[in-house]
Amino acid sequence: MQPCAPTQTPDVDIPALREKYLLERDKRIRADGQQQYLEAEDDFSEFYEGDPHTPVEPRQPITDDIEVVILGGGFCGLITAHRLQQAGVTDFKIIELGGDFGGVWYWNRYPGIQIDSDAYCYLPLLEETGYIPKEKFSKGDECFEHAQRIGTHFGLYDNAIFHTLIRSLKWDGEVNRWQISTNRGDEIRARHVILCQGPYNRPKLPGIPGIRDFKGHTFHTARWDYEYTGGDLHGGLDKIADKKIAVIGTGSSGIQAIPHLAKGAKHLTVFQRTPSYIFERANYPTDPEWVASLEPGWRAARQRNFHNAAFSFYSPGEPDLICDGWTEVSRNMAAKLNATENFSGWAALADPAEFMKLKEIEDYRAMERLRQRVEQIVDDPATAELLKPYYRNMCKRPVFNDEYLPTFNRPNVTLVDVSETKGVERITDKGIIVDGVEHEFDCIVFASGFEITTALDRQFDIKPFAGREGTSLYDHWGKGFRTLHGVMAHGFPNHFATGFVQGGVTASTTLMFEQQADHIAYIIKQAQDRGATYVEPTAQAEDEWVATIRANSVDNSTFTSECTPGYYNSEGEPNGRSFLGDPFWGGFYELTELLQAWRDTGELEGLVLEK
Ligand code: NAP
After folding, report:
1. N or C, which end of the chain is more exposed by having fewer CB within 10 Å?
2. Dihedrals phi, psi of 6, to nearest 5 degrees
3. What is the residue range of the signal peptide feature (predicted)?
4. pLDDT at residue 586 in the model
5. pLDDT number for residue 2
């Protein structure tokens, strides 16, 4: 592969831009914050529980005692299952709402779906399954197929209970098991429960006045209705040529689906509250020569390099192996430091304030480059202006697309800016009101995202979630996460969490899941080997972990509060949940070592085990 060159970025007036960023943020901040969204329940339950991809077969309710239940069969669930197998724990079931493995890649099959992150880092268990992604940014079907590959390779289909949604979890201290109820009337008891639902499990809807009145067709991008649109995830939406379609939402999902809707529909109207920042896709097929050159461990080195760009920093002269929009700011900054005589510029980074200052400059320059890119692609200057993102890099998820911006040069596409009204004003039985005028539509597509940083009981949708003494997990974590090592909680025996809670964060979420799965599998195996039916962290161990988290915390509240609202910063709510949870800022790789050292003692310090 070619060495990765820095991008050419323009000069910027940072104070003026900062002022503009704050004005744009203030325009969009809403007093109702996270409450502006509706849950996919009642009239809208099909937006979550309905499966447009696989018919749900009737089955008898299951009554069973299982050693370990993994909630969720996406990449987290699959990685965890593999790690349990490796540890010698084989009596487990994966309970999954979808009709197959894949999680987000099972559900999200909207046209244009494609990874927005380096596939060589993101797709899990590559070396273990002997698979190499076909291109840098895999399409959605390749991701789904890889989930199926993992399921087949490790014989996990026998462990799966598909089309089943866990409704409640209650700890039963009489038998030291979790009682699990599901949407299929099952009565399952599990010794251990591992939550692998992932952050994007549950679609949410905008709470737009009148949303229930619309009489036309509607669906959410996460449950795409190809019966209605025709085509498939590669496009070719051939059933909507006579339809007027509206899309609400211009985040990662909306951006990818919109070019295909525009090609298929009679007319497409895009309702945009905040423009995304859009990097060049610059995708490429996997080079066989590069594959032939790979040595064992190549992937770990690549993931580490990605981590350095996103959550730490390069060392002098370190190449950027990822070479895309995620790494642009760090790459450009490192290039300037590398250009100093004998790398002398790197010395300045010893001062964290100087590091932040240099990074901020590159951030503003990179975002200005992307705004200029909009101008170069979009013909109409007024439309181009509306499509320019005025906020800092990483305030929102970066997106990568070459078709989205040219879509606004099409005669059958209209962009409607709804930033002044902080979102779409009103939906009626026939369409959407804009500036007091009703626009009629046949179909409204909601690209409105997921319950990611809304309240935990909305995201988990497990009610009740009751631990020892009947305590609700939502109460226990009501004022912030409290865990041991980010995976266990006091009062919740034999329960294991994954994801963005109180663990380490890195650039590839699947690597984070691997770290957590290693730890969880070890604890469960140890409990089994010691004949324990009960394992729970002490209150003291939990307190100490919370103190460790606090001692290593990084104050990025200025950055996040200055960001435009979105799920990353909990819609700008002052004490909202961060997308990253409450991480161990001591470092992802440092946490790996810390957890390994804890396991190496074999003492299970901080855990109570009972027979
Ligand atoms: P999202 O990023 O949360 O975007 C939701 C969109 O809906 C935003 O544009 C939001 O506008 C808009 N919206 C919400 N309420 C509105 C209202 N009342 N009026 C008008 N617009 C409204 O959701 P997403 O696009 O589904 O992406 C979610 C996450 O899933 C991504 O960030 C990414 O992590 C993951 N994802 C990844 C991929 C990939 O890797 N290829 C693809 C899809 C999704 P505001 O921005 O103004 O709030």
Report:
1. C
2. -65, 160
3. none
4. 94
5. 77
Give the span between the Cα atoms of 535 and 607, in whole angstroms: 6
Contact 561/569 with Cβ under 8 angstroms? Answer: yes
Of the candidate CATH numbers 2.30.30.100, 3.40.640.10, 3.30.428.10, 3.50.50.60, the domain formed by 63-202+452-545+582-610 belongs to 3.50.50.60
Ligand 1, residue 200: give the atom nearest the CA.
Answer: 30
Pick from 113, 250, 324 the residue to mutate for probing ligand 1's pocket: most ligand atoms within 8 Å of its CB. 250
According to the model, what pLDDT value does residue 576 have? Answer: 87
Return the best residue to mutate from 30, 122, 448 for the ligand 1 pocket (most ligand atoms within 8 A of CB). Answer: 448
Q: What is the pTM of this model?
A: 0.97
417 beta partners: 272
- In this prediction, the residues of the chain whose per-residue pLDDT falls under 50 are none
Helix/strand/coil for 30: coil
Q: Which pLDDT belongs to residue 129?
A: 96
542 within ligand 1 shell (Cβ under 6 A): no
Length of the chain: 611
Rounded distance from Cα 250 to ligand 1 centre (Å): 6
Q: Which residue's CA is the nearest one to ligand 1's atom 48? A: 566
User: What does the pLDDT read at residue 228?
Assistant: 98
